[in-house]
Amino acid sequence: MSHADEAHHELLTLCSALGALLELHRATGASGLPKATAELARERGWSAEPVVVPTQQREEAAGGRGVQVPAAPLPAAPARAPSSRVLLEPSLPVAVPATLEERWARLKALEAAVADCTRCALSQTRTHTAFSRGDGSSGVCFVGEGPGAEEDRQGVPFVGPAGQLLDKMIVAMGLKPSEVYVCNVVKCRPPDNRKPSPAEISACRGYLEEQLALMQPKVIVVLGATALEGLFGRSESITRARGNWRLYQGIPVMPTFHPAYLLRVPAAKRDAWQDLQAVVQQLGRTLPGRG
User: Fold this and answer.
1) What is the pLDDT of residues 141-188, one digit of tens each?
2) Which is deepest, 1, 125, 193, 244, by most CB within 10 Å?
3) pTM here?
4) What 3 state SS string does the chain have?
5) CATH architecture of 100-282
6) For helices 55-62 and 3-28, what crossing angle results, to 10°?
7) Distance separating alpha carbons of residues 40 and 35, to the nearest angstrom
């Protein structure tokens, strides 16, 4: 291969990678560089102008890979577009067993480890840990905050009033409650149902990460601001975050309101239902009674 051919091949490879990156930014709603990065670019004299790639080279770079390389950065996604679909396949970086049986065996072992866990002070006040419920066969995983009084008594997440509402929401999506995987950021009930502390969330984070890696869901639905913080490590307003797709380890994530909040503020159910309809669309399914 001549130097000219090598340079041409490298350009096509870079164009393809750039196209994939821009598609990721479009899907997750990114609108530009962080402030520090933009300042660094100005300090080093990097051009802020978009790189225009000839049409023929863009088509060659995209050929066979299903990626369209744009001539200029794509516009930012709308601030709230719950009907849009994240066209990215999950790609978990964690090595997991090859068979479903092996994954479930690992989950059972993890559940036993959680039951004996003393990593934080919540272990001193719990009655039972609440690890998970459902088999996840639908490809949907719901992540909540933590167990309440009824969950602490039964040792199962989302079995109280909020859980009963969650089951109704799941059925409205055309799924069975047994077909979705339901878990929480923390596995022990915080006293008086208070918000778990950052230290408690951190102590449980490894369990949650392994659960999600073993379940390999197609979509994760995050219920409430605490669950969002537990998954992404930063505090955010669920009112602003809900309805906007993002990614966790390559998996599409839809944040929405916690069912307990919906019980207190019924008017928010309309927004939550809009978010769940986007999840159904992401799965390539149809709502009951709509063909």
Assistant:
1) 999 999 999 999 999 999 999 999 999 999 999 999 999 999 999 999
2) 244
3) 0.69
4) CCHHHHHHHHHHHHHHHHHHHHHHHHHHCCCCCCHHHHHHHHHCCCCCCCCCCCHHHHHHHHCCCCCCCCCCCCCCCCCCCCCCCCCCCCCCCCCCCCCHHHHHHHHHHHHHHHHCCCCCHHHHCCCCCCCCECCCCCCEEEEECCCCHHHHHHCCCCCCHHHHHHHHHHHHCCCCHHHCEEEECCCCCCHHHCCCCHHHHHHHHHHHHHHHHHHCCCEEEEECHHHHHHHHCCCCCHHHHCCCCEEECCEEEEEECCHHHHHHCHHHHHHHHHHHHHHHHHCCCCCCCCC
5) 3-Layer(aba) Sandwich (3.40)
6) 80
7) 9
At residue 95, the pLDDT reads 65
- 131 touches 245 (CB < 8 A): no
- Above 70 in pLDDT, residue 194? yes
Q: Higher confidence at residue 43 or residue 134?
A: 134
Asked whether residue 47 carries a pLDDT value surpassing 70, the answer given is no
Picking from 124, 118, 127, the residue whose alpha carbon sits closest to that of residue 156 is 127
Query: What is the location of CATH 3.40.470.10 in the chain?
Result: 100-282
- Could you give the CA distance from residue 170 to residue 286 in angstroms, rounded to a whole number? 13
For the cut 90, the answer to whether the pLDDT of residue 84 exceeds it is no
- Residue, of 16 and 200, whose pLDDT is higher: 200
